[in-house]
């Protein structure tokens, strides 16, 4: 301590000891961190008041200049003005710079860390609240060695964010606890789409070198996982600050076992997350003296020199730091208006702006009115324009440049005026500036300008149109994300029906927006603004909403699918199709390649919504009892709850440590039960009964039993025996009289609840005698069942099919498919109008029951043959494995249908003159028939199933291949035949070449060229390590292609045997195959410059470059073959759902 300061203490020692009471004095000094708690106890230990005062003076004399200043300020605050005056001349002068600290006491290291992390700067006028800052820092030290949550909570406007930012301006705290840095994210009130946008921005900020991904995450779950990896790999031991949290569900996206500080108005907001939790309460408002200090700093006066109106103004501001700052900013410019501003505050009748708001608007309304009134006249309209902004949205400068049609520098000058008046906030993170209003300010603006809001929204839309004209913002532009997220909002708020329809019904807009943020936000906008979009006709909005709802799982793919091609698959009356057709025709001029689905008129989409809430197989899903929500679970170990109407996610829980197999709502929808494989006894399913009279739970397991539990008495009431293998599912009937169970033994059983006796067994596997299934996939596992609301029917899921049974006659009344893989679950809604299914394909489909009507159960087998003619094509297909059906490819009509055969038909073919047809059977027999007549030639030469057959060009010879690894060449007219033997495993297929040559490929990985006259092998290629699924020779015989079970297609040089191109370089471990599965067939164009391949879907390739030209996504998958016209303009295939596709190249 300076000698001068020490002398003043000693000189006035007697007066100080005689008058002061130490308790309140010490509180101030402890808050200023110049007095320790131990020293306080030492003072309190003294007997009398004078002794306590003397001990305090003695301790201060042993300290530094800061102690003297703190003691002096404490005397002033506690009313000892006369004693403070005695010490005033002894106040030491302290240098504002100390070592490596700057003028504000912050080191360059701290400044860099906070700037990089986006931590807000100190307000222009800043008043310290050291006690609260210290409390926050102490809680943060608890996160030094382990993850956890620190919650800074208090009412709005109490300074939570400013205090938090100040607590982080500590060199030792950052260096010791968070060497990985600080990352500040302003959250605010968010919906799912808004939170996803915040997460996308954060991931982009943290992963600027794109080391994890080249694209933003498409959903919250993906963003959470991306964030977890970034924290683990790039930013270990960092602190994430989530500013202004309103909803507990938001925190789940950040629950990644890291260090998190949040500011919130809700103390219980962290109840939904796991980990260590610490709290710091912030008092509701500033103390009166702190309010006076803020005013004194704004007007650059000592507190003692403030006019008498100052006390009243602080009182009217009700301790809100924000309101006091607004008034202080006004007084700084007009220091003689103390009385005027006080009268403005006192004379108004204060009332809440909005009754539902939790803010205290009484003083704010007045402060805001005066703040705006004091703006330059030219600036008032600019500030009014900000009324259209949404809460918690930081607006890039570029948006306001467009709104006001000004240069960036001009806009920044205007906005800086608002910032200086505390009417706007600026985030200077990075190179660009982003501006935002506090919620209180925005509420004030919207209320003040309520009658003008529509015109203000119209203004920003018109300015957007003027700037961008017919173009769409690109991702490289600073304002891009703002327009994609809020342009429709502005149009709807302006009631600009024509402009909103033009935007929302534009394929260009849909493509640009979904490519950046996925389809969820767009679907939400169709629902949110339907009252405007449907003013003239709801059909168009329904077309686009259905298009996105049913193709959302495709729009999440990478690379992004061609949205024009997807649109061409819509019904011809759909506005989506008409726009896609127009754009396709325009793109054709530029060399694009598109396909028209000729026979799509016969297709009716039975699904209403397709969502992908999980990242792996979905094992189970169910409706809540009110039908408004859906719960789902699966292999990703999570339980998801989302809205049944829109698919919007409501809840996500990491429910178990292993795969979650089943979930169920209780009768009152208050609880969701789950079961998993994380226990020693694997429980496959659990189901509550439907009434509250007697609470029952049915469970089933791998032990082949179904158990019925009485939850009120907590015991197993009955055990039901009868299944021969594990029981995968059980379900109460709506009236609780019966329980249905599904088993891996291929049966569905119905049981009486009262007696536990078996009522009926339905053998589902008998209805799957389908030779179109893969040979290694013959086991029928009945996965799930669901009762209709009236108990008259029951829906059963097995493989990828849904079967509807009548519970009285036990006859199958409907059969439908839709999923690309195994269906694990089917559930009716409570009223029976909808049912949902979940599958291994990671999707949940919601169906309309009325559309799944009585079906014909006619399913085409994927083996077919096509004969192309000048003016059309004829298709020979296998119907229900027993009939041959001749179909006109142009009209879709059936021209001929054979009688049922005794043995299952495996393959078929047509002669080129359409006079004869042939087919191979499961028993190894091949048969020839004359169309319109019965079979008149037959030969049983193969020992196993015939998998492929084909006539020679003259129609006299029939060639067939079989699972017995042989190829039979049979002149069915002369009865002469030879066998081609050389493959070591089953022959997959073959192709006829010129000059009596034949190309065959096998599961042994080889491709062979035969002379069918002599049976000699002329060429033998080893092309793949795995099974060869298809191959072809280009028409000019210079190139040779092969496809394999390793999901690749290779193009070879025939003469040199060199590999020219690998069309599918992605491996199974790296991600989804380019073909979506095995490549099963391919064909060259006549000019050998294009190649079409099929597998999970169809793809067209440029042979020269190996680039993909187009992809056609079929409704089903596992395409077996592709038939191409000689002109390479018409393509025919059948998917695993039995859907026939006749595709024509657009010209």
TrEMBL record:
WD repeat boundaries on the chain: 611-652, 720-761, 816-848, 939-980, 980-1012, 1021-1062
PROSITE patterns: CARD, WD_REPEATS_1, WD_REPEATS_2, WD_REPEATS_REGION
Cellular compartments per GO CC: cytosol
Keywords: Apoptosis, Repeat, WD repeat
GO molecular function: ADP binding
Segments forming domain CARD: 1-90
Pfam family, one: APAF1_C
GO biological process: apoptotic process; regulation of apoptotic process
Full protein name: Apoptotic peptidase activating factor 1
Organism, as annotated: Chelonoidis abingdonii
Lineage: Eukaryota, Metazoa, Chordata, Craniata, Vertebrata
């Amino acid at each position: 301590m300076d000698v001068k300061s020490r002398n003043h203490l000693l000189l006035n020692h007697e007066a100080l000891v005689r008058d002061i009471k130490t308790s309140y004095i010490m509180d101030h000094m402890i808050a200023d961190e110049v007095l320790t708690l131990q020293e306080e106890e030492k003072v309190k230990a003294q007997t009398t008041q004078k002794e306590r005062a003397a001990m305090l003076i003695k301790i201060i004399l042993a300290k530094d200049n800061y102690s003297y200043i703190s003691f002096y300020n404490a005397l002033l605050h506690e009313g000892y003005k006369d004693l403070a005056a005695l010490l005033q001349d002894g106040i030491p002068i302290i240098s504002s710079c100390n070592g490596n600290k700057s003028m504000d006491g912050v080191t360059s290291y701290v400044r860099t860390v906070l700037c990089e992390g986006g931590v807000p700067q100190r307000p222009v006028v800043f008043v310290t609240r050291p006690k609260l800052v210290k409390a926050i820092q102490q809680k943060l030290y608890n996160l030094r060695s382990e993850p956890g949550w620190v919650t800074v909570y208090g009412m709005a406007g109490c300074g939570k964010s400013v205090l938090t930012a100040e607590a982080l301006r500590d060199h030792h705290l950052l260096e010791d606890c968070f060497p990985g840095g600080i990352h500040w994210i302003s959250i605010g009130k968010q919906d799912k789409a808004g939170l996803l946008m915040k997460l996308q921005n954060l991931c982009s900020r943290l992963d600027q070198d794109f080391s994890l991904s080249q694209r933003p995450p498409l959903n919250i779950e993906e963003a959470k996982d991306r964030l977890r990896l970034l924290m683990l790999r790039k930013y270990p031991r960092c602190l994430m600050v989530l500013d202004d949290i309103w909803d507990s569900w938001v925190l789940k996206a950040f629950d990644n076992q890291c260090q998190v500080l949040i500011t919130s108005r809700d103390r219980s907001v962290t109840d939904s997350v796991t980990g260590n939790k610490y709290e710091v309460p912030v008092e509701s408002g500033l103390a009166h003296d702190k309010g006076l200090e803020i005013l004194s700093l704004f007007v650059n006066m000592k507190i003692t020199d403030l006019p008498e109106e100052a006390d009243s103004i602080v009182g009217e501001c009700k301790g809100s730091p924000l309101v006091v700052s607004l008034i202080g900013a006004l007084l700084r410019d007009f220091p003689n208006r103390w009385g005027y501003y006080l009268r403005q505050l006192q004379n108004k009748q204060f009332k809440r702006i909005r009754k539902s708001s939790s803010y205290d608007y009484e003083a704010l309304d007045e402060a805001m009115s005066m703040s705006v009134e004091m703006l330059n006249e030219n600036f008032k309209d600019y500030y009014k324009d900000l009324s259209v902004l949404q809460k918690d949205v930081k607006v890039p400068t570029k948006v306001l440049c467009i709104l006001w049609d000004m240069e960036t520098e001009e806009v920044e000058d205007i906005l800086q005026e608002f910032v200086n008046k505390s009417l706007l906030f600026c985030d200077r993170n990075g190179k660009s500036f982003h501006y935002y209003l506090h919620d209180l300010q925005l509420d004030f603006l919207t209320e003040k300008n309520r009658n003008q809001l529509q015109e203000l929204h119209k203004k920003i839309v018109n300015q957007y149109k003027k700037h961008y004209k017919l173009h769409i913002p690109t991702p490289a532009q600073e304002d891009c994300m703002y327009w994609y997220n809020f342009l429709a909002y502005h149009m709807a708020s302006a009631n600009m029906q024509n402009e909103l329809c033009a935007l929302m019904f534009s394929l260009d807009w849909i493509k640009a927006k979904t490519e950046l943020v996925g389809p969820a936000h767009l679907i939400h906008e169709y629902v949110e603004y339907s009252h405007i979009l449907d003013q003239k006709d709801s059909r168009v909005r329904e077309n686009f909403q259905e298009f996105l709802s049913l193709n959302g799982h495709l729009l999440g793919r990478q690379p992004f699918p061609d949205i024009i091609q997807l649109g061409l698959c819509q019904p011809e009356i759909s506005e989506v199709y008409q726009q896609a057709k127009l754009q396709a025709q325009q793109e054709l001029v530029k060399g694009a390649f598109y396909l028209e689905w000729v026979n799509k008129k016969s297709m009716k989409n039975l699904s209403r919504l397709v969502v992908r809430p999980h990242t792996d197989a979905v094992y189970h899903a169910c409706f809540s009892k009110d039908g408004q929500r859906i719960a789902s679970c699966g292999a990703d170990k999570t339980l998801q709850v989302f809205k049944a109407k829109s698919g919007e996610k409501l809840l996500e829980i990491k429910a178990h440590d292993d795969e979650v197999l089943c979930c169920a709502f209780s009768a009152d929808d208050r609880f969701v039960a789950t079961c998993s494989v994380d226990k020693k006894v694997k429980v496959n399913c659990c189901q509550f009964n439907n009434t509250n009279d007697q609470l029952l739970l049915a469970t089933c397991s791998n032990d082949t039993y179904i158990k019925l539990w009485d939850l009120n008495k907590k015991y197993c009431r009955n055990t039901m025996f009868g299944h021969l293998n594990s029981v995968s599912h059980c379900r109460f009937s709506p009236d609780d009289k019966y329980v249905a169970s599904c088993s891996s033994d291929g049966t569905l059983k119905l049981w009486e609840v009262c007696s536990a006796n078996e009522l009926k067994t339905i053998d589902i596997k008998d209805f799957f005698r389908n030779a179109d299934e893969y040979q290694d996939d013959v086991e029928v596992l009945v996965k799930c069942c669901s009762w209709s609301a009236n108990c008259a029917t029951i829906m059963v899921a097995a493989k990828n099919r849904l079967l509807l049974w009548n519970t009285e006659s036990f006859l199958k009344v409907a059969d439908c498919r839709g999923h690309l893989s195994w269906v694990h679950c089917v559930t009716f809604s409570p009223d029976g109008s909808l049912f949902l299914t979940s599958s291994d394909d990671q999707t949940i489909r919601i169906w309309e029951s009325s559309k799944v009507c009585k079906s014909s159960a006619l399913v085409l087998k994927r083996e077919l043959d096509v004969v192309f003619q000048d003016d059309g094509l004829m298709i020979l297909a296998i119907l229900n494995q027993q009939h041959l059906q001749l179909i006109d490819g142009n009209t879709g009509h059936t021209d001929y249908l054979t009688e049922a055969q005794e043995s299952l038909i495996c393959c078929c073919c047509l002669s080129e003159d359409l006079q004869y047809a042939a087919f191979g059977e499961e028993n190894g027999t091949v048969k020839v028939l004359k169309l319109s007549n019965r079979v008149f030639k037959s030969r049983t030469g193969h020992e196993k199933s015939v998998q492929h057959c084909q006539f020679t060009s003259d129609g006299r010879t029939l060639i067939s291949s079989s699972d017995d690894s042989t190829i039979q060449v049979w002149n069915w007219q002369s009865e002469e035949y030879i066998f081609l033997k050389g493959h070591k495993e089953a022959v997959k297929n073959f192709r006829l070449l010129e000059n009596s040559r034949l190309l065959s490929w096998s599961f042994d990985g080889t491709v062979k060229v035969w002379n069918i006259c002599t049976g000699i092998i002329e060429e033998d290629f080893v092309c793949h390590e795995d099974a060869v699924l298809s191959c072809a020779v280009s028409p000019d015989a210079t190139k040779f292609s092969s496809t394999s079970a390793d999901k690749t297609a290779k193009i070879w040089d025939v003469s040199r045997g060199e590999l020219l191109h690998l069309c599918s370089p992605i491996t199974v471990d790296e991600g989804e195959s380019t073909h979506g599965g095995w490549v099963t067939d391919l064909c060259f164009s006549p000019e050998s410059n294009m190649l079409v391949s099929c597998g999970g879907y169809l793809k067209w390739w440029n042979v020269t470059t190996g680039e993909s030209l187009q992809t056609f996504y079929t409704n089903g998958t596992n395409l077996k073959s592709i038939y191409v016209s000689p002109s390479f303009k018409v393509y025919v295939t059948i998917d695993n759902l039995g859907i026939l596709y006749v595709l024509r190249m657009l010209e």
